[in-house]
Amino acid sequence: MPAVHWAQTGVLRSANWHSENSTPAPSRVVDADDRMKADTAYRLACEGTALLWRGDFHNARQLLQAMSRRINRKPVTQGDSPADSFHLHRKARSHRARVLGRLLVLLEDGYCLDLRRAPDVRQACTEAYGPPSGPMAVLLTELLGVVGAHQWRTRGVEVAALDARVHPHYGVFSPVRGEYVDLVAQAPLRASADRRADYRTAFDLGTGTGVLAAVLAHRGVDHIVATDISPRALACARENIRRLGFTDRVDVTGPDLFPDGRADLVVCNPPWVPARPTSALETGVYDADSSMLRDFLAGLAAHLRPGGEGWLILSDLAEHLGLRTRSELLARVEAANLRVVGKMNTRPRHSRVLDTADPLHAARAAEVTSLWRLTAK
Fold this sequence. Notes:
Pfam families: MTS. This is Methyltransferase. One of its GO terms (molecular function) is methyltransferase activity. This protein is about 35% helix and about 25% strand. It has helices at about 40-45, 55-70, 80-100, 120-130, 140-155, 180-185, 210-220, 230-245, 290-300, 315-320, 325-335, 360-365; strands spanning about 5-10, 10-15, 30, 50-55, 105-110, 110-115, 135-140, 155-160, 165, 200-205, 225, 250-255, 265-270, 305-315, 340-345, 370-375. It is globular and about 75 Å long. The relative contact order is 0.10.
């Protein structure tokens, strides 16, 4: 494990370094406390110097906000095309994360945050990082995310289709955008003469929190196999399936995308934006070269039972951003020996749709999320 080193009252100290964003350990670290001015902190951070905070916790949060305001003074440049604007937006976000990520805090033994007015972060850190292993330096922005994730995990996210809450873990995509869940809850399940669903077996690929597997079980599918490549997601899905009482009908497994065998129904909600994630935390949104989408389409026909369907839940945001075309998507469907037999659409309901200050507002305002019903030819 990499380490960081700094001098504190003339004594050289060190601690393990951890970054979920894969940020390398800083080579230069200086002490910072309540006496440091925001302009000084911002200048040092822009120059690449990390600031190890030793003062009041709430003052550290205020310093982050002050540094953020200084970053905002330089507006994000609009590109000549939607794709250019997207890449400039990502570049600006990366710069913001890099500058704000230079403010560090030290987690002492047992994840104790020894700062004035600091919250108890031990449980949140244990959930995110696992058992403690000595003092560890982390980005303050990351620690705030860990604390926020713990709060989401504790109270859960209401899912109307289940009339229950799903509890996301740190690093697992949360179903706060409920439109894709509603599509799976409303898509037709063909019924046979005895009124049972013809789709008695299903695969949920990239299950995340397990919410779609739970929705299928709630709708009467007899047996669902839910997969994911992420150990965090597998643990999260198993916990949610247990909470919801579906352990007798849902098996959670990984790390392969497809489980063995065939199913009547195969559901996949891959990352919607074909761009390289900058950290493991972004893999629920960004997927370089649409690799999960391509693998799903390429393997679907071989994993469907006769008469079965694949449900692809996908936003067209990438199309509005100029990162993928509709013809490219349909060509991949055709190349996989599949055909489209139906499609359901819905509009996103999140607040960014109305945020005209968002550099990507035009694309977000036009976005449509679809459930594509696919069968083998």
